[in-house]
Amino acid sequence: MSKEMKFLVVDDFSTMRRIIKNLLNDLGYQNVAEADDGKNALPILQAGGIDFLITDWNMPGMAGLDLLKAVRADARLAKLPVLMLTAEAKREQIVEAAAAGVNGYVIKPFTAETLKEKLQKILGATA
Amino acid sequence: MSPPLLKLKYGARVRALAEALERDERETFETVLDDILQSHKPQVVSQLSDLTCNLQLALDRFRLDSRLSDLAEKDIPDARQRLAHVLKMTDEAAHKTLDLVEQSAQPADRTARSAVALGQTWSQFRTNRIGVGEFCTLLEQLDAFLPQVRQDAELIQRNLTEVLLTQGYQDLTGQIIRSVMMLVEELETILANLPQDLRHDSNAGFEPSEPGNTNGFGPAVPGICGGDVAAGQQDVDALLSGLGF
Description:
The complex is a heterodimer. Helix content of chain A is 44%, strand content 17%. Chain A is of the alpha/beta class. Chain A has a five-stranded parallel β-sheet, sandwiched between helices. In chain A, helix 1 (14-26) links the parallel strand 1 (7-10) and strand 2 (32-35). In chain A, helix 2 (38-46) runs parallel beside helix 3 (64-73). Chain B is mostly helical. Chain B has one domain (5-207): Orthogonal Bundle (Helix Hairpins). Chain B contains five helices and no strands. In chain B, helix 1 crosses helix 2, helix 2 (26-126) runs antiparallel to helix 3 and helix 2 runs antiparallel to helix 4 (169-198).
C-alpha cells in the first residue's frame, strides 16, 4: 500500500478527527483531509483524489450511512474503500452498513492496533 | 317576567304545525316543519364543530399527558443515568491521561539525567582532556545509554498514542450530552406550552423527536436498554465475518 494515498476523515467532533489523523500519521500516511459531516464530505470526494474514506455514522447534516450510500451510488466513487468508525454498535446497524457496502466497521472506543489492522485488511483486499 | 325563550322561538310555528296536522294540510305541515328544521340546522353544525374541537383537544391532551408521563418515568431517569456515565467516562479518561503522563515522566527524566552525565564526559573527550580510563567509561556509558534511550523513547511513544486515543472520550460523551440536550429542549417546549394547553385554547400539537436508524442512536450506555448491541470489536468482527467479510 502506498504511503502517498490520500485519506478523508469525516467526523463531527474535531477531537476525533485529530485523533484519527495523528494515528494515520503514525502509520506513515501524511496526506489526510477532513470534513465534519457527510454533506461537506461529498463535494470533496466528488472533486477526486481521495483514496480512502473513514467516516463516523452519527453526524448532523448528513449521516455516515447516507454518505456511504451516496458514495456507492456514484459511479466514480463506487469502489472507494470505506471504513466506518463509530459508536453505533447495534447489530442491525452493522448489518445495514454491510448491506450498504462498507468495507470495514470499527466501534468506538477503539485501539490504534484495531485501526491499523482494519486498514491493512481493507487495503489488502482492495489492492 | 319575560316569556320562555323556546316559546318565543318556536311557539307560533309549533302551533301552526299542530293546526296543519289537525286540518291534515300536508303542504303547510311540511313547509312549517322545514322552516323549524332549517332554523335549527346551524345550531347542530355549531354543536358538531364544538364537539370535534373538544375531541381534538382531548386527543392532544392525551398525547401530551402520555409524553409527559414517558418523560417523567423513563426519559428523565435515562438522562440521569447517561449523565452519570458521562461523569464516569470523563473521570476515567482524566485519570488514564494522568497515569500515562506520570508513567512517561520517569523514562523522560532518566534519559535527561543520563544525557547530562554523558555530556560531561563527552565534553572532556571533545576537548582532548580525557584519559584512557575515562574514555573506557565513556564507551560503557554510551553502550548503556543508547539501548536505554531507544527503550524509553518507545515507551513514551506508546504512552503518547494512548493519551491521544483516550481523548476520544470527548466524542463519546459529547454525543451523549447532545442527546440529553435534545431531551431538555423537548421538555422546555412542553413546559412552555403547558399553560396554553391547560386553558384548552390551543390546538397546537407537538411531535416528540425520535432518533432514526439513519441518523444513529449514539453510544451505548450501560444499564440503558439499547436493543441488540455488539459487546465489542470482536463481536463486530464475528458478525461481519458471518456476513462474508
